[in-house]
Design brief:
By secondary structure, this protein is mostly helical. Helix content is 63%, strand content 0%. Among the domains are: 99 residues, no CATH class; 58 residues, no CATH class. The longest helix has 25 residues. The N and C termini lie far apart (135 Å). It holds the Pfam family DUF7083.
Length: 232
């Protein structure tokens, strides 16, 4: 009986190793290169179905080990540094995903990624490759989560072009990046606040262009008449 049990256990271990090796060979190594849109979230989407539906023979620890084993040397070093003194094997599946998404996400703001989608151009490549480019860019920009308010805000901020509006542009981008629920009214209120601060600053510097109660211009003739002595 014990011999039969031992044989069965041996088969389970072998099947587990075989499943791990098979999955390992099907997953391309992840290399982080944000300038070429090679980020962890895009890489993971490519293998999401595999991790969700084909890892039934692996427990969570082995599934996590499989994921970490497909990081290149630089990414693995950055991961271990980020979670030190813990080891990757000590983290759960969700914890390791959270760390990797934070460490190897896009360096571009969400606004920039979305705006770049509107600047895509077909450059004569294979249509299938162009389709893949569009899908990748739109997925990375999370366009599936944007609503009408978000779309309006995108175009609102994009309109602040040129050096004269650099401060407005920077502040509005920061506001969009800090919250997903921003409306046009929020952006307009932010612009009015920025303008108010700028006017106050210019007033303190003595800029004559800023007046709280502007006076009517006095003509030269009125100045002369005002200066002339009145008859007794």
């Amino acid at each position: 009986m014990s011999e039969s049990s031992g044989t069965s256990s041996s088969f389970v271990v072998k099947d587990k190793h075989a499943a791990f090796d098979s999955l390992y060979r099907r997953i391309e190594k992840f290399s982080y290169d944000p300038d070429r849109d090679r980020t962890f979230d895009i890489w993971l989407k490519r293998y999401q179905d595999l991790f969700d539906n084909e890892c039934d023979d692996l427990d969570e620890k082995d599934k996590t080990r499989l994921l970490v084993s497909r990081l290149d040397e630089d990414c693995h070093r950055m991961l271990t540094a980020a979670i030190s003194p813990k080891q990757p094997s000590e983290l759960s599946w969700n914890e390791i995903l959270e760390v990797l998404e934070r460490q190897f996400g896009s360096a571009k703001t969400l606004f920039r990624r979305r705006f770049e989608c509107f600047k895509m151009r077909y450059e004569g490549q294979e249509f299938n490759n162009y389709e893949l480019l569009v899908k990748t860019k739109c997925t990375d920009a999370k366009l599936d989560t944007i609503d009408f308010d978000g779309l309006q805000c995108l175009f609102y901020v994009a309109g602040f072009q040129g050096p004269d509006f650099a401060e407005y542009r920077t502040r509005l981008l920061r506001k969009l990046d800090q919250s997903e629920k921003v409306t046009l009214k929020d952006l307009t209120a932010e612009c009015q606040l920025i303008k108010s601060y700028k006017d106050d600053s210019r007033m303190l510097e003595g800029d004559p262009a800023v007046n709280f109660a502007p006076k009517d211009k006095i003509s030269k003739q009125e100045e002369v008449q005002a200066a002339a002595p009145t008859e007794g």
